[in-house]
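Lab channel / #folding
Pinned by the channel admin:
"Please post every new chain as: sequence first, then the structure tokens as a reply. Keep commentary short and put observations after the output so the thread stays searchable."

First post following the new format, from NK:
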Amino acid sequence: MSIRLADQPEPLDVLAVGAHPDDVEVACGGTLAKLAADGYRVGIVDLTDGEPTPFSNGPKSRFIEAVNAAKTLGVCERIQMDLPNRRLIDSFEARIELAKVFRWTRPRVVLGFGDKTPMASPDHHQAMLLTDAAVFYSRLSKWDDYFGGLPTHVIDRQLYFRLALEPMTIAGNPFHLLVDISATLEQKLAAMRCYGSQFDHKRGIDDRVRAAAVMTGSIAGVSAAESFAAARPFVTNNFFAALGMDLSPGPAGEPSNIRELSLRHWSTKKP
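Reply from TO:
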């Protein structure tokens, strides 16, 4: 893909990376729909076109499915790369190409695979390795010859997802967070249904994905949720927002340096 600086779009807030069209919808479609509805600029990158695949009519048909799914979620950009399906490998050249996408779209947050998917496509794990490397390559200076003049871009946060049919957490990573998708679960399922070639022959797939979201949400007391793990821990300046609480100090909340101090002795002895 030939990229000119003048063609760069407005930066994305969040960019999700999948190995194939439909990966992102299954993994975090509810979260992407929620963010898009809240006004954030959300994008998707498919590393391959997903072809060949047993029940598809070919790349054009699969691309139409991906476009319809993106419209259903409300995302503002979808990029389909031409890395090879079924032969996706974490190579230097592929890392550079994905890093170019990051430098072009300039996301604040990148979402991607967080582990292997046993008995499913090995492309998923390769996508994780590629994403990890490209997040790093995106910010490297003194390497201009590889990036066609695209300036460096530092990605602020990287989160891992897992497919919604797998365990709720990623083993060995303690930095998990859940996103409430109670309001967008049906939108996620509608986006998945755009992929007739992938899911029409899989009986009960809606029920399985719904059950996984409900189970994930139940551990945090909401109707449905998606789980993410941070690539590395991060800090927050908003204590209550980090706890999932919409709480502000209100008009009575004065700065601590001018607030009157109240002192009491609290006796636990009976009079």
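NK: Helices lie at 23-37, 59-73, 92-105, 123-137, 185-193, 196-199, 205-218, 239-242.
TO: also worth noting, Residues 176 and 229 are 4 Å apart (CA to CA).
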